[in-house]
Input
Amino acid sequence: MSSCLLRLYAIVGICVMFSPLRAENVGDIAVRGNVLDDIMRMPITTAKVYVIDLVDSSVVASSTSSGAWQSGEHIEYTGAYYLNNLPRKHYILKVWNDGYEPQTLDLDLTKLGKRQFQLNLDPIYLT
Output
């Protein structure tokens, strides 16, 4: 009897070890992209990027498109933003900057593959 009980504990232990603890936190996604001026195609380094929950319209994450890289004394601004730790849900991505029309995009992270943990978006052009 104790041998069967020991086997049962071993099987349960293995099952627990290979199952996710909380499915909603497993596989959070990082989203990257750039914000550019529609006419000049130049980076906008002050745009605000918001991830908005479809259910309650709350802001889940935010970033500023202030990406830059430096080589020696040369600095190149990219207008890059980075949003991390986003649960696999359906959102709205809102991009806003003074002097430009706001843009909203559909951001559905539920359709990504199970092994995909980063999403690189096409550039967002503000007019």
